[in-house]
Prior knowledge:
The complex is a heterodimer of chains A (about 150) and B (about 170).
Chain A: H1 5-11, E1 29-32, E2 35-41, H2 61-83, E3 89-100, H3 108-123, E4 130-136, E5 145-153
Parallel strand pairs in A: 3-4
Antiparallel strand pairs in A: 1-2, 2-5, 3-5
Chain B: H1 2-21, H2 23-29, E1 47-50, E2 53-59, H3 79-101, E3 107-118, H4 126-141, E4 148-154, E5 163-171
Parallel strand pairs in B: 3-4
Antiparallel strand pairs in B: 1-2, 2-5, 3-5
Helix pairs in contact in B: 3-4
Amino acid sequence: MVNNEETKLKEKKIELSIPAPMLGSYVHAVRTGNLLYLSGKGPSKPAGGLMTGKIGKDLTVEEGMEAARLCAISHLAVLKAELGSLEKVKRIVKVLGMVNCTDDFIEQSKVMNGYSDFMTEIFGEKGKHARSAVGMNSLPQNFAVEVEVIVEVE
Amino acid sequence: MKNIFLIIISFSLLNLNTMAQDAEAKLKEKGIVLAAPSAPVANYVNVVRVGNLLFLSGKGPNKPDGSYVTGKVGKDLTIEEGYEAAKLAAISHLAVLKAELGSLNKVKRIVKVLGMVNCTEDFKDQPKVINGYSDFMVEIFGEKGKHARSAVGMNSLPMNIAVEVEVIVEIED
């Protein structure tokens, strides 16, 4: 069965907005051959603003998962803007998930499942990726999570 | 005279190269047996191939008994222990490569390494720690094992593992 990403999104009542503006002198995505390198994105909330705070202190694991999911939605917005349609995604290749957390927090993998589960829900098999999940002692604007990704396109 | 020297030098280089290229033999020489790759701890896969590039997931220091080397370098662990942990992460990556490719001799180049060290805020010898990974890759793959690299400090890692390393590998057609 063809997994229609746009339908999946509609089913979930998720609307992709225009990608959030950059925080500096860099771009949302760079294409080289069939690979797209996407910049690190934070958890933009649908109503505007960002999810901020340190997991293990200000935020729970579940809130961290939600933040990671919001990063995935931000990346979809970039992909949609870049490709026109999400159907042009051939494979989510490689994810680096950076979790803003306390020194003794050790559940980065769980937090990043918020991102990975969502990508798999939307893209099916094509959404399964290689990944690293790590802890950071601080992130820009106190984001809860920042994620970068490499995507293969048709 | 000069020419003879050059010939001798190129012969020895050639020799070194051929020797280093048999990664499987090198591994045997060191008495390292690769286990089946450790299963991803969450919803992702060990490796994704795009063309001739393999993108490997971040791996931690898997001990032969299945447990991990844990702790923060600079507090719980010394640089030397961190070095050993990084070497174990390299062995984990070899296990993934072996499972994916059948033979390590299909590796064309270790391309790019990101080494992340679980360490205290004032720790600054991350390169020395990640050398445990890099030295091992060069021992096994010779020239093909030489890679671009970043080594950085993290305030925490999943399950409190001491290091986590991810890598991009080029493979033969």
